[in-house]
Amino acid sequence: QENKITKASKEQDEKYKTQEFKAADKTVAEYSADREAANSELSAVLEYYGKIKERCIAKPETYEERKARREAEIEGLKQALQILKEETAAFAQRAHRSGRRHHAFLAAQ
Question: What predicted TM-score, i.e. pTM, was given to this entire model?
């Protein structure tokens, strides 16, 4: 009788342990699938970040680049100043000529 009880108890233990084992295997499989999906998503995000990082993060300008940019800016400003000087001189010359005509017209009357 004791052997039957012991045998039945061991069979039940084996049954429950097998169920636990199968449940644990299922959980491990689910977690593994979740991990693979998360790693796949992480890889995609890191790849995207690598692509936009180049466009979004300011890179320090080298001294040569800053110098060249400043020299180009100064050259443009010099050209603009020269144009303004020429236009001012031309305007002043026209104003001076028209002023003489106006004075000559008034003197003739």
Answer: 0.41
